Please model this.
Amino acid sequence: SQLIIMSSLLPNEQVRMLLSLLQSEDVRGRMQALAGIDFLTDQGDSMKSQLVVQGVVEAMLEHINKTGEELKEGDPDWKNHSLLHHHRQTVASILRSLTCGHPSNKKRIVQRGAMTFYLELLEGFVSSPNAKAWQDEAYMAALGIWCVCYSVPENQLLAVQEGAVSMLLQLTQVQEGQHACRPPPPPPPPPPP
Model:
């Protein structure tokens, strides 16, 4: 219902409404805000710039922290809660969408904490005993790192300094290790006599 109302607003009013909804106490409202932000990322480069400049990146990262804090109260394994996995994956996907074909946003979202967020997702995958639960987030984080680093030397340097290369290598090692757990293929049949 709020997304229908949003369509009658000017672009900057849409962003303000979604920011307000994203910062609310209502988890359902925050989920609607993420859906609205995701929709707006398809509305062109001008809208992508507005989203970033008006603080959507910071609000989404705060939303992830807030959701984690809420879950922490009632769940000892809160970091592996399916709702939090879903929200982290959604935010990682939106961050990547904000940078597609938009070099200035690549710099902006990294300055606003995206690289740190991506690295946290990779760390969760590599260090979790339940790596499969983190798999989608790690995939989105790897894509996000690639997107923000593509054609942006400052972000490439930061990625190296922040340990992204090491984390990506660990990611491939964990994935290879998972594949190594599969039973070996059956031996080839003996050659004909």
